[in-house]
Write a structure and sequence with these properties.
Layout: E1 3-5, E2 12-15, H1 25-32, H2 34-37, H3 64-89, H4 92-95, H5 102-120
Antiparallel strand pairs: 1-2
């Protein structure tokens, strides 16, 4: 499942259609259409997705202190994303999901909407 979460508000911005579990993250990202839609936007991703062009930061400063700062910032953002995934998995429909095809996509969309409503209420 490819999901984009705003790091500041923790709201789900977009969720792509799920792909089989044996699909590489980089390919799932490219095929989802999110990469083209968010072209030019810095989208931090885990190590498996870095081949996608949108997940890299262009012209990042070099040097040991800059690298340490980037890693710390990246970890903070990734933690927010992982916490959002954990909150979304609290919904039983995703935790025990037996949906196939469009059913899973609709379940993810519904949970993302409920997640956003919970955060904004």
């Amino acid at each position: 499942m490819q999901v984009i979460i705003d790091a500041d508000t923790k709201l789900v911005i977009a969720a792509a259609r799920p792909v089989p579990g044996n699909t590489a993250d980089a390919r799932a990202w490219r095929d989802s259409g999110l990469a083209q839609h968010y072209d030019g936007v810095t989208v931090p991703a885990d190590g498996a997705t870095t081949p996608a062009s949108s997940s890299r930061t262009a012209n990042a400063p070099a040097g040991p202190s800059c690298q340490a700062k980037r890693r710390t910032t990246h970890r903070k953002v990734r933690a927010r994303v992982e916490h959002a995934f954990a909150r979304m998995k609290h919904y039983k429909i995703l935790r025990d999901c037996q949906q196939r095809g469009n059913g899973l996509h609709h379940a993810v969309q519904a949970v993302a909407h409920m997640h956003n409503l919970t955060l904004t209420s």
